[in-house]
Amino acid sequence: MEKNVTLIALFAGLIAALGIIPAITLGFGVPITAQSLGVMLCGTILGSKRGGLAVLLFLLVVAIGVPLLSGGRGGLGVFASPSAGFLIGWPVAAFVIGLIVEKWNGAPLVIVAGIASVVGGVIVMYAFGIVGMSIALDKTLLESTGLVTAFIPGDLLKAGIAGMLTAALAKARPASVLSRADAV
């Protein structure tokens, strides 16, 4: 139990630390950040439940006003911004990523973690993000979908990095990749 709490807090801290990397804010108010890599790693390394909880903890701290989002943003206002859908989708994305890594044992971990990061960290996260942008920007779903295409190359790169980091960690310390350790 204590180990789980520690890991959840540690990975919430990882997402916060990735917020130090400067964001590139696009014209429609949604920044490109490294923090979605942290969300992917929460799922690939911690698994579905712990990964989702780590992201929820991070968002709770942001909601109470701690400026942990890239660019020093925090507070309830971020949940009414154009990026709100992405933020709301983060815990779901981490959960889906973790679930895929936990259940799919038939391929090398680097491939599974990379594909899981694309499914959860791109497809699932974009589904939430597109709806959120549509509401916040008063655009159609199709218009919002067009706007998120700017994120695809970077998010695919982050998914590949998440896959490689997870596989490298599993090779160096197999028991530390809990998404796989729990499945065994």
UniProtKB/TrEMBL annotation:
Q: Which domain of life is it from?
A: Bacteria
User: Can the keyword Cell membrane be found in this entry's annotation?
Assistant: yes
Answer yes or no on keyword Transmembrane helix: yes
Transmembrane ranges, per UniProt, are 6-30, 51-70, 76-101, 108-135
Q: Which UniProt keywords apply?
A: Cell membrane, Membrane, Transmembrane, Transmembrane helix, Transport
Instruction: Give the membrane topology.
Output: Multi-pass membrane protein
**GO cellular component terms, semicolon-separated:** plasma membrane
A GO molecular-function descriptor: biotin transmembrane transporter activity
What subcellular locations does the record give?
Answer: Cell membrane
Query: Mainly resides where?
Result: membrane
Family the UniProt entry places it in: Belongs to the BioY family.
Instruction: Report what the protein is called.
Output: Biotin transporter
What species does this protein belong to?
A: Yoonia maritima
Ranked from the top, the taxonomy reads: Bacteria, Pseudomonadati, Pseudomonadota, Alphaproteobacteria, Rhodobacterales
